[in-house]
Amino acid sequence: PGVVTVSRQAEKSEGDHDPQLCIYVDGSFIPSHRHAAWAWVAIENDTIVAEASGLTPEPALSRNIDGELQASLQAIQWLKSQNKKGQILHDYAGIAFWADGSWQCKSEVAKRYRAAVLPYLGRVEFCKVKAHSGDKWNEYVDELARKAFLKS
Question: The whole model's pTM is what?
Answer without folding.
Answer: 0.85
